[in-house]
Automatic annotation (TrEMBL):
Species name: Mesorhizobium neociceri
Domain (DUF559) ranges: 41-145
Gene Ontology terms, MF aspect: endonuclease activity
UniProt name for this protein: Endonuclease domain-containing protein
InterPro entries per UniProt: DUF559, Endonuclease_DUF559_bact, Restrct_endonuc-II-like
Regions crossing the membrane: none
Ranges of Basic and acidic residues composition bias in the record: 19-40
Residue ranges with Low complexity bias: 1-16
Amino acid sequence: MGASQNGGSSPPQSGGEVARAKPETERGTPDAPSRRSPEKIARARELRHGDNQAEAALWNELKAKGLGGYKFVRQMSIGSYFADFACRSQRLIVELDGSQHAESSYDRQRDKFMRDEGYSVLRFWNVDALKNMRSVCETILAALEGRLAEDVAAADLRFVFAARKTRDSAL
């Protein structure tokens, strides 16, 4: 079939349809295993669709690289835990907590696990995300930019710092 028969510069056709490249998500073998289990994917989706106004408000600030150009994801699984928000490139977890988390030994254990995995953890109260969003975002930026570099424990904020490993320190 020559160029004059298929209408000029149209792409070649097979079976009456234009051949198209598969989207990136469909490339490779159809049975390629996912890095995450179906159970963790389902749990993360469930958590994302929960009814938490504070998380929804903070997500509006963080999504689409809206805060300083840093990419965040929601409900990322780390071990058996799920982080409310995570910036993988800077290894920062941001958690929003309700009053049930006050002095929680479970949260301290969770924070230790996250630090051992190389993530710093910032914890704010839900009410602060709703009433003081600007301060919350400025504090997140300070952590992302390395201006917070030690543990902080205050009435309205908890920061568990995980020092980043460099190539020199790994040698």
